[in-house]
């Protein structure tokens, strides 16, 4: 193991630093990934790690509930739901006497740094424990339970908190560990219910978790294409029952075959009375006079395999928590490590817990405006978007409505349909007439354009593929005249281009030919949709989360297929020259090596890797996984690498290669891709609306930068791109290479 430094105790004895880790409160998918990352990062840095079983109770009980962990103790847990080191709701830890025993047990092992993964309860308990630590030590010395030198060597408890909670209810992080996987479970259930509900023209009421937080309810309602949602932060005003039923009726009249209402378990009315799913069912059955069923999803939401996001983000969080704790001094601030805008962020633990509790307090005292404000602007924005998507308050365009055409181009990306649906419904709701162009720029050239109404896009949310059709071709110069004629004939006032690199190139071409073809001088906005995640102006593109989940599922299966033998896998991902899918699926799938075009592949690395691999299989390793981007190296192909391993592996292990291929483009879009498509499209329609209202015709490409959805001018599109390899010059996720190395294996 090549280590640049060994983390040692600052007491001057040269003893390694000791970190404790525990999971507490409600379990959440992704906790295991975080534990694995803390353990491996700490070991990579030369520290010792102790797993504390069964949460705070294990710390109080001591003995074999606190176990030194080695590298292999966290092998094969990345893909498991729940928490393998156990969790517990410990009453004893709420008492000072319990915390005294906990402090004693930690000190006996020389542990004065702990990572806790839990909800706001667990984190406030942690804060209290830290504040009391000096007093607990003094008492232990006084009672003669520990020696004064031990107390002197560990004067403070250094802590880092990670938020594990499926509710996504903690202020200070965009996503809590487990929330994305819970959304996967809920949206899968809604998709399944929608197909049976539509067959019988039935209504369903679905109850989801969330006592004080409507995140899961609201986001699953948007991602599931549902009709109505009830959340604690935004209770409906009196008379909501009639309004809800009127909305459901309008939805049916406009083309829906089913109605699905999502109720958060903590939903309430303005007077603070709970709204139960059974009550909602009765209202619908009575008013709509139709068969209505309730499905309470319950603990299924906590279970199952963690999503790709819950694996890579939790790995990154665990890595960061370990790094922060190893660098901590007694004066360091106690932080919660969260993820904000695709970056790690640390905020004071006390502040995070205080603000989180404030939301619940606001709901209790019926200050709903403040509760929504504390949830943040994108939560409020999504509430508004949901209403527009769900309710066909406006289905006929006025005579003076402007005409916006939607066109897809580039490779297929899951979520294109979701984006087109959002564009049609939001466009209509905002007063425009929406047109669909069939078959990309080919279709635009040939005039394959038709008007789309509210009902046309019913059911598109969950469908992978692209109903409008998509072509890779970029317009040739001799197409431009026909395209311009077609835009004129169909009186297209604005263009919404949803797609990948070729879509962007096409939009750029039309933009630069505006002088020659006046009909190109119309507001134009590009929305990034590509599994490759290689587009300018957006840190993520629609479809890449789905592709990543497909890859991770495939990797899980491959690993299982090889578990009975000694086997090395070389897995090839798509991505063109962008290594996003390879690196992130490597991180989320637990790969030992990742090969990217951004880094290139050197023969010296391969030779070193093989030497390590032979040693490691000889010492008992059973599985090795390398993930390789399809263009990582022109000559060291996937086939070459597999053959090289086979030749060099001899009898030690066998080798399989797996090119995952087009299934990466084919999945039903994940909740994240559906929500992201909806949010970006809403922004794009707003931009087009503003341009049309102002009588101007700027061109933009939209995207997510950090936490913000924004837009950049088309004219400057190519300035931020590596044109030879068709990827952005600046790629944020490359920072995760260090994380991958720390948790992956010992040859780095
Ligand atoms: P969550 O962490 O998921 O919010 P809980 O609120 O049940 O779950 O907290 C988990 C555990 O954290 C509790 O069982 C208890 O051991 C500890 N804990 C919570 N709040 C406190 C507190 N105020 N003081 C001490 N320990 C606490």
TrEMBL record:
Gene3D superfamilies found in the cross-reference section: 3.40.50.450, Phosphofructokinase domain
The organism of origin for this protein: Salana multivorans
Protein family according to the UniProt entry: Belongs to the phosphofructokinase type A (PFKA) family.
Keyword list, A-Z: Allosteric enzyme, ATP-binding, Cytoplasm, Glycolysis, Kinase, Magnesium, Metal-binding, Nucleotide-binding, Transferase
Gene Ontology cellular component annotations, sorted alphabetically: 6-phosphofructokinase complex
Residue ranges occupied by any Phosphofructokinase domain in the UniProt entry: 18-323, 403-688
InterPro entries, per the entry: 6-Pfructokinase_euk, ATP_PFK, Phosphofructokinase_CS, Phosphofructokinase_dom, PKF_sf
Pathway(s) annotated for this protein in UniProt: Carbohydrate degradation; glycolysis; D-glyceraldehyde 3-phosphate and glycerone phosphate from D-glucose: step 3/4
Cofactor: Mg(2+)
Coiled-coil portions: none
Main function: Catalyzes the phosphorylation of D-fructose 6-phosphate to fructose 1,6-bisphosphate by ATP, the first committing step of glycolysis.
Top enzyme category: transferase
NCBIfam families the record matches: 6PF1K_euk
Protein name: 6-phosphofructokinase
Subcellular location: Cytoplasm
Reactions this protein catalyses: beta-D-fructose 6-phosphate + ATP = beta-D-fructose 1,6-bisphosphate + ADP + H(+)
Single GO MF annotation: identical protein binding
A Gene Ontology biological process term: fructose 1,6-bisphosphate metabolic process
Enzyme Commission code(s) on record: 2.7.1.11
PROSITE patterns in the record: PHOSPHOFRUCTOKINASE (PS00433)
Main location group: cytoplasm
